[in-house]
Amino acid sequence: MTEEIDDSDAAHPIYLIDRIVVAPGAGEDFLRLYRDEYLPKAEARGIRVATILVHPPLWLDDESNTITAILTVDDVVGWWAAARAGRHDSALAAWWEGVAPLIVDRVREWAADGTELGALARV
Amino acid sequence: MSDLLSTHLLTAGRHRDPAALAESLRVAVGPAGGVIGRTLPGAINGGDVLLHGPSTTVDAAMSRERFASVESVRYRPGATGHRGDPTEALVYRALLLGIGDDASDQARCRFERDLLLMPRHITSMVWWRLSHVESSHGPTRFTHVWEQLFRTREALSGQYMNHPVHWGLVDRWFDPEMPENLGIARLCHVACDFSPDQAPALGIPALDVPALSRAHSIL
Questions:
Q1: Which chain A residues contact residue B168 at CB under 8 A?
Q2: Which terminus of chain B is more solvent-facing, meaning fewer CB atoms within 10 Å of its CB: N or C?
Q3: In b/e form, how buried is each residue of B184-200, taking b as 16+ CB within 10 angstroms?
Q4: What's the gap in Å between the CA of A40 and the closest CA on chain B?
């Protein structure tokens, strides 16, 4: 016998994944700017850091590192709060333009725990 | 070629009652001539009154009215589809947006494809249409009109906004922080109440309601 869990009232965190391929030798500089300048403004919008990973796990001088930052908001309400605040802050896009010389390629994705997709879609 | 359609977002101004403006337009256009209504709360750049329908009908009605300002688009109907009986809907919603000149054709196509995925997941959306704008009037050069009918007001503010297909897939094209954003600097998000007698103005024929939804390619 199976029991269906009613998790309709539970919070379902949403994850923001920034995957940045930095210019050769620029990894430390980019990560410092990301931590010191970008993340405080993100946190003010309710976006928190889950972890920041660096591949390969040593700073390279002549090749690119890939930095993967996993950030999170509490739920879809938090997602909209962060999104609305961001749309009215032209400084955010300007920040990315400012660090563009340190970046070779960048991907940003919103994602969720694979076990929670059904709950997220029940809206 | 399909008939030209118009959507006008009118701001009544200090000396005109929006309800009276909407009613005057409703009388001028006739019961089946257009979708006309007061802008529902929550609009973005939506004005006071929404007026939509065949250009030949609604443009003439608007030209006889007094109001402070208007933002308009003209377009021919694009990809459309429906689920169940669209005349059961209670809310008409339109999104006017202008893609930046720097966006690639490939990105435009992917954006349109993503928009047209929404009805598959958002079950409260009972009719939809994505069209390319031929001309616009106002501060923004619009390129697309994304129209929908919803069963209820709550469906628009709830399921449509909160479904993962919206925030997890489609929104990236609007977000200036996303590398793939389309340079959409300004948009109009507007909705009004809808009644079955307005269905012909959306090209929804009476008593022609297949059980399954259908969609046609815009490209």
A1: 14, 110-112
A2: N
A3: beebbbbbbbbeeebbb
A4: 16
Query: In order of start, what are the domains of chain B with their CATH numbers?
Result: 5-203 (3.30.70.100)
* Reported ipTM: 0.89
| Helix H or strand E segment including B162 | helix B161-162
Question: A61, A57, A68: which is closest to A20 by C-alpha?
Answer: A68
Q: Which of B34, B84, B89 is nearest to B60 (CA)?
A: B34
Question: DSSP letters of A69-94?
Answer: EEEEESSHHHHHHHHHHHHT-HHHHH
What digits encode the pLDDT tens for the residues A64-121?
Answer: 999 999 999 999 999 999 999 998 888 999 999 999 999 999 999 999 999 999 999 9
Q: State yes or no: pLDDT of A6 exceeds 50.
A: no
Cis peptide before A56 (omega within 30 of 0): yes
Regions of chain B short of the pLDDT cut 50: 207-219
- Model pTM score: 0.90
Q: Domains of chain A, with CATH numbers?
A: 14-111 (3.30.70.100)
Residues 83-112 of chain A with CB under 8 A from chain B are 83, 86-87, 90, 92-93, 96, 106-108, 110-112
Contacts of B171 in chain A (CB under 8 A): 83, 110
Residue A46 sits at φ, ψ, to 5 deg, of 90, 10
Query: Which residues in chain B touch residue A71, judged by CB atoms under 8 angstroms apart?
Result: none
Per the model's pLDDT, the better-predicted residue between B8 and A5 turns out to be B8
